Structures are given as structure tokens and as C-alpha cells.
Amino acid sequence: MLSFLSIGIGICGEPCPPQCRQCDKSRVEDIFFGTEDEPDARFVFLPDCGHIIEVTSLDQWIKDFENDPDNKTAIRFPECPRCRQKIYRCVRYMPILNRVHESISQVKRKILGNKSRQEMNYRRTQLIAEYEKIQRNLKEINLVQSITDLFSKLYKDDQFFSDDMFNLMTNLLVFLNEMDAILIKGRKKLQESVFEDLVNAPLRHIVKYLSAQRQDRNFAEQQLKDIQSEFKRIHRVIYIESLVSSLKRTLKEDEKECIDSMKNLTRKSGPFTDEDRQKFDDLVKKFEQINNLPGLGITDRERIAIVRALNISKGHWFICPNGHPYVITEVEIFFFDE
């Protein structure tokens, strides 16, 4: 025991780094600040990233972080000097971390507190009416249990709702309504086997994906974009497959190439990008001009309203000298800097 204590590289009373000064000599004495290879050097273990940092150098690093004029007002965690991973957990610097957590809590209270009880009840009443309307009108989709459980919270008077939760519910209703309309359209226009494989199956997968969404926050921006892209792709699947089934003559070579290119765009692996959509629509216009066919008629259907996530990162949060949180948006930062 005494032998083990004599070679420990940590600080008394703090979590001991897993490395040994003798067994892990190259890692322990890896020079970063220049103090790592001193015989009596002691190290702090950062659990968020796993790095060990020589204590006197890290203390100075944290002190410089605190004394930085920008960091005195900006709400941010200190970072590991090696990898820039934010330090969320470290016994040695808990007072600093606790101050940041408290500032974040103030920001949350400021955001969530912007909604009065009257405003919350008004929006809840609107969502209940829309939910019940969609429940009555859905023809192809059966709501899964997790989604009905989420909307059942609207009927509880003591339930608190953040903007994020309201936005999540709004987006879910928009998505369910859109998918039901696509399924109705696809079943009407396509053969059963084509409908099941190319329309019903991918949309059922989206329903499953929606049901697994966390119920305390809205969709991220990328999630919204991915779901909308899939809707656009399936709209075009229905168009091309119904077009092919309606053609009663042998296609010319250029017409066949056009059809094959449209099919490839909707069946390729990976997301259906804006570039894919534009290529598809250009091919449709070309085919319709050759054959004097009516227009695509799907753009109006795609204009579905999506409520964007409440995203604190869109602005920068700060603490004033009196301890009050405030936000500066990107535009305000521009004028502020000017």
C-alpha cells in the first residue's frame, strides 16, 4: 500500500487518474505545458474526455479562462486544453462548474417563464382541437401508443408545457396529416404491390421514427429537413410509378432514358437532396413537354408548415454584471461589434 501511494500521480481527495507514472510513463510525461515530466508532478483527471493534465498548469489555464473578459459575461464551460472538450465534471473545479450550471438554469427559467398560464392554455386548447380533428380524419394511419400518450398530456390541467413541447406536437400533427394524404394518394394511383413497397413501407418507417422521438423537445433542424426530403421523394415516387403504369405505348429511346433517370433518382440510397429534386423536376418538365402532358402538380402539396426548434445556439447567452442572463442574436452581434 505504501509503495502504491508513493507513485500515485493524482491529488489527495480527488479522483485518481488511472495511469501509473511508471507503467504509463510515455503518456504521463507527454509534454504539453512543459511541466509534465517533473518528478513530483501531479495530475487532474478530466472524466469528460479522459485526458490527464498537470495540476499547476491546468489551474493556471482555468484561472486564465475565468479572468478572460469575454468569459466573465459569456455563459460557457471551461475546456480541456488538449482537446477543447467542455469540462462538465471535475471535482477540483466544481465551484466554477456550478456557477455555469446556475447561469444555464437562469436562462431556462427566463425562456420557459416567457409564457403566461393564459397563453399556455390558449395554445393547448388549439392543439387539442387540431389533434381531435386529425384523429377523426386520418384514414390510413393508426396512431401508435407513444404518440397518443404524448397528446393525452394536453388534457391534464397540471401539466407544464415548454415551447419545445408545443412545437414538437405541432410538427407531429403536420407530419401525420401529410403522411395520411400521401398514403391516400398513393393507394388511389398505384397498384397494390407497388404501393406497399414504395410508399406504405417507407412511411410506416417514418411513423415508427416519430414515435421514438423524445417527448420533451422539438425535432432538430436536420431531422425536420430529412423528414421533409423523404416526403418530397415519395411524392415523386407516386408520380413516376403512376406515369409508367398509365403509358399504353412503346416509349421512344429518349423517353425511356428520361423515365429511367427519374426512377433512379427516387430509388437511390441516401437522402433525397434538393439537387435530386431539381433534377427530377427538370426531367418531368422535359418529358411532359415532349408528350404534351399536364404539369407535375406536387409543389403545393409540399408546402407544409414546420415549426422550427427553439434553439438557444441561434443567439449567444451572456450574464450581465448584476447576474441577469440576456441573449444577443447574430444580427445584434454585428451591430454591437460595429
Secondary-structure map with pairings?
Blueprint: H1 2-6, H2 25-28, E1 43-45, E2 52-54, H3 55-67, H4 69-73, H5 94-112, H6 117-137, H7 145-152, H8 163-189, H9 192-211, H10 221-246, H11 253-267, H12 274-291, H13 299-302, E3 315-319, E4 325-329, H14 330-337
Antiparallel strand pairs: 1-2, 3-4
Helix pairs in contact: 6-8, 8-9, 8-10, 9-10, 10-11, 11-12
Task: Outline the structure in words.
This protein has 338 residues and is mainly α. The N and C termini lie far apart (63 Å). The model is unreliable at 1-6, 309-314 and 329-338 (pLDDT under 50). It is built from 14 helices and four strands. The chain has helices at 2-6, 25-28, 55-67, 69-73, 94-112, 117-137, 145-152, 163-189, 192-211, 221-246, 253-267, 274-291, 299-302, 330-337, and strands spanning 43-45, 52-54, 315-319, 325-329.
Mean pLDDT: 81
Query: Strand sequence of the main sheet, in spatial order?
Result: 1-2
The topology string of helices and strands comes to HHEEHHHHHHHHHHHEEH
Main sheet record: 2 strands, antiparallel
Number of strands: 4
Q: Segments where pLDDT lies below 50 for 5+ residues?
A: 1-6, 309-314, 329-338
* Oligomeric nature of the chains: single chain
Q: N-to-C terminal Cα separation, in Å?
A: 63 Å
Please tell me the total number of domains. Answer: 2
Q: How much helix, percentage-wise, in residues? A: 55-70%
Protein structure class: mainly alpha
* Overall 3D shape: elongated
Question: Number of helical runs?
Answer: 14
Strand content: under 5%
Q: Rg, please?
A: 29 Å
